[in-house]
Design a protein that fits this description.
Blueprint lengths: L1 H18 L9 H17 L5 E6 L4 E6 L5 H15 L25 H27 L3 E5 L2 E9 L4 H15 L5
Antiparallel strand pairs: 1-2, 1-4, 3-4
Helix pairs in contact: 2-5, 4-5
């Protein structure tokens, strides 16, 4: 009788343990390699020579690739940016937008040259803030999500404009998008 009891317990324990195991989505190395290759090739088509890196959701490097003519530091910079994005480390908060002060009745009339100088300065400041925000986004790379779960982060470094880095990173993601499940 006792041997039957142990037999039933032995059958039930593995099934209970198996039901409690969590599943985790990840990006296979083959897809990570394909994505960085797609990003570097896209930048090469644009005449930019870059390095690209992909890290997993914990910040561990999955794949890195540098174009033959890219700067040496571009590869390490791409890896750091991908890690920052995966770990959601923001180096600085974005600057708040400054709204121009509306004129009041007590303001003295401002001559046209002074108004133009103020407008030019305001536009220059807004352009500087826009570029800083773009650089901030560039330093985070782009997430690679599978069913709304972050599985990896891709970043590209070495092009002349932040927009080009983002375009190339998106091309790398688009290259493997159909294979992500």
């Amino acid at each position: 009788m006792r041997s039957g009891w142990w037999f039933l317990m032995a059958l039930m324990l593995p099934s209970a343990a198996m039901a409690q195991l969590p599943t985790r989505k990840y990006l296979p190395i083959a897809l990570a390699t394909e994505a960085v290759l797609g990003a570097v090739e896209k930048c090469e088509e644009m005449g930019q020579y870059v390095g690209a890196a992909i890290v997993d959701s914990s910040g561990q490097t999955l794949a890195m690739l540098r174009h033959d003519r890219a700067k040496l530091q571009s590869l390490e910079q791409a890896r750091q940016w991908a890690q920052q994005g995966a770990l959601r480390v923001v180096t600085a908060p974005p600057a708040p937008a400054v709204a121009p002060r509306p004129p009041t009745a007590t303001d003295a009339p401002i001559d046209e040259a002074r108004r133009k100088a103020q407008d030019d300065a305001r536009r220059a400041l807004e352009d500087q803030r826009r570029r800083a925000e773009q650089a901030q986004r560039r330093m985070m790379g782009l997430p690679i999500d599978v069913q709304d779960v972050l599985v990896a982060q891709i970043a590209v470094s070495g092009s002349y404009e932040p927009e080009n880095d983002m375009v190339c990173a998106k091309a790398g993601i688009d290259r493997i998008r159909s294979q992500l499940r």
